[in-house]
Structure formats: C-alpha cells, structure tokens
Amino acid sequence: MVRGAGAPDYFPTSERRLHDSMAQLYGVPDPGLAQLEHIASGWSPYRSWVSVLIRTRREDTTGEIAGARRTTR
Prior knowledge:
single chain
C-alpha cells in the first residue's frame, strides 16, 4: 500500500521478514526496532524501496512467500 500511495520514504515497522533479513544483512543479532529504524535512516529518502528490495531478495532466495521454499541456491 505504501508503494502504491507513492510514499518512497517509509520504513515498515511491523514487517518481521524484513527485520529478520536486515539483521542478517547487517550482522546484528536480535536487533530492536529502534536499531532497525536507525539502520534504515541511512536509506532515506528511499526507505520504502530499499525495504522492497530486501524483501524481494529474501523471496528470491527462499521462495517462502510463494510457498515454494527453496533449500539450495
């Protein structure tokens, strides 16, 4: 909805898959929301789009959203 509304600089605060992927990409075990928001502040003014790209990478890697979970890549 955020992308469709044309809001390029919004960080999703309730997207667990995004947050898990960020923790892996940034090497931060068990980060809190404030730490994730701090990381995402560096993506401004395109936080929405970077979030989409990270989620897309996760889907490409795991296939979990499409229900075709991949075990190798």
